[in-house]
Amino acid sequence: MSRNGPLALAYHTLFVAFMLAPILVVCWVAFTPEGFLSFPTDRWSLRWFEAIARYPEFISAFWRSLWLGAISSAIAVAISVPAALAIGRYRFRGREALTALFMSPLMIPHLVLGIAFLRFFTQIGLGGTFAGLVLSHIVVVLPFALRLTLASAVGLDRSIEHAAVSLGASESVVLRRITLPLVLPGLVSGWALAFINSFDELTMTVFIAAPGTETLPVRMFLYIQDNIDPLVTSVSACVIAVTVVALVILDRAFGLERMLVGRSASHGR
Amino acid sequence: MPFLELEKLTKSFGGHNAVDGLTLGVEKGEFVALLGPSGCGKTTTLQMIAGFVEPTSGAIRLGGKDLLAMKPAKRGLGIVFQSYALFPHMTVAENVGFGLEMQGVTAAERRTRVAETLELVGLGTFASRFPRQMSGGQQQRVALARALVIRPQVLLLDEPLSNLDAKLREGMQIELRQIQRTVGTTTILVTHDQAEAMALSDRIVVMNQGKAEQIGPPHEAYERPATAFVANFLGKTNLVDGASVRPERISFAAAGLAGTVRTRIFQGNHWLYQVDTASGLVTVIRQNTGEAMPGEGDAVHLLWEGRA
């Protein structure tokens, strides 16, 4: 492994600082006692964290976003697994087209998707419902789930499954006992990436969500249209804290680096 | 009637015959090596026996029964893969016990048989390890144990030793042969390594472009190669005046084919010579007996049995 030179090190430091600075600023401002976005601040207070409690719609939006992300990502992964196994391991007619179809939500601007879903859901009576949110989020996060699931399906050594077959395992046993456990890391990382994308989605959701089905980003967006005060920063700080905890747990369980590069190597317990 | 019969076995990939009318009979308990360069069809043959590749034509019979009519999972063959193909998420004991579990063997009997088989391959104390915690040679043994524990009718070995370093490979060859003799399982080995094929097997099938060039005991194929391809593939050979002569059969003498030593290489237990002669460059191998040997540039005469 080659070591970084001083120039490269300086570049990396700058880059990391550039990435982290906004997050740190947000967390810092969250602790201000002032009634406006004061930065830098040298006085500390938890006042804006206490303020969250007075806005139950933020808390319910947070839970809604959590559920929405969890459900839509889980369904996206469930769709991805058979798709990834087929695309990753077989050569068949229409394979390229199928891949392009699954990946296409990446290429369509979310603004366009938002307007299209709004029209479509109103037409079929799903306008402003949680089910509508789930459906639209499945579409948006599917490419992320599929990408990582596909990476682990492609990396799977076929002879491992052949070995199981030669030992007398039926196809369903091979799938359950061998294939799925081996693609599990890719599956979990695909779910995590899909979840992050769903949790973060605003541009499309702002069209689809109605009062009562607002997600956290939508709630925050609507809030800062009327008020500029540190409440959004304290909410953001909470979300960042939850994210960091979740990443630490995932890292302990599966190894974050391997998850995010989508390697298939399995991890023993 | 042989125990395992391949009859006019053929596999075409887009008009090209990877395996071309291969006929072979393997006796019960016999160790047969399919030997040849990459692309000669040896691996495809193995995969057809295992059931992972469907033949274009021909038949495979095991104990008189049509093997092709059986699903791969029902064939009862033990396979050791080149990559070992161990289940990375299972312990050694779970890996080895997997086949028994599929057969519905009770947990208690499974434990006994797994322990016995691990003992056989010298891994008695490794049962609770995971494959990634083991060396290549140990993983190789786990793969062998996993294939043997189901008491397979035929053991198929696909380049089993090619991922091991030279020293380990030699040790494993000896061990593999002993284990095969002990359990007496009919075995088919696929390899590109002629030394491995000769060391392990009762008979070798030298394959080239999908066809068997020669089938016979290693010694016989080496001494009496049926074709120039076999002669070249099984060790070094000289073509002198149209006849094939092994380098170690040529000796230095007072009279014979006159030549000049071009290079001399010392290889510990033997000397390797290249001698310029009127019939071209001749390779000579002489045992290192401690005697003085001709040096580079010396004039020599070459003699071998059968030289007119």
Automatic annotation (TrEMBL), chain A:
Primary localisation category: membrane
Subcellular location: Cell inner membrane; Cell membrane
SUPFAM superfamilies: MetI-like
Topology in membrane: Multi-pass membrane protein
Superkingdom of the source species: Bacteria
InterPro entries, A to Z: MetI-like (IPR000515), MetI-like_sf (IPR035906)
Residue ranges of the TM segments: 7-31, 66-85, 97-118, 124-146, 178-196, 231-250
Residue ranges of every copy of the ABC transmembrane type-1 domain listed in the record: 62-250
Keyword Transcription regulation carried by entry: no
Alphabetical keyword list: Cell inner membrane, Cell membrane, Membrane, Transmembrane, Transmembrane helix, Transport
Similarity-based family: Belongs to the binding-protein-dependent transport system permease family.
Protein's recorded name: ABC transporter permease
Organismal lineage: Bacteria, Pseudomonadati, Pseudomonadota, Alphaproteobacteria, Hyphomicrobiales
Automatic annotation (TrEMBL), chain B:
Secretion signal span: none
InterPro entries in alphabetical order: AAA+_ATPase, ABC_SmlMolc_Importer, ABC_transporter-like_ATP-bd, ABC_transporter-like_CS, Mo/tungstate-bd_C_term_dom, P-loop_NTPase, Transp-assoc_OB_typ2
Coiled-coil ranges per UniProt: none
UniProt keyword annotation of Phosphoprotein present: no
Residues in ABC transporter domain copies: 4-234
Gene3D superfamilies attached to this UniProt entry: P-loop containing nucleotide triphosphate hydrolases
Organism superkingdom: Bacteria
Pfam families according to UniProt: ABC_tran, TOBE_2
GO molecular function: ATP binding
Keywords: ATP-binding, Nucleotide-binding, Transport
Recorded family membership: Belongs to the ABC transporter superfamily.
Name recorded for this polypeptide: ABC transporter ATP-binding protein
Species, as recorded: Reyranella aquatilis
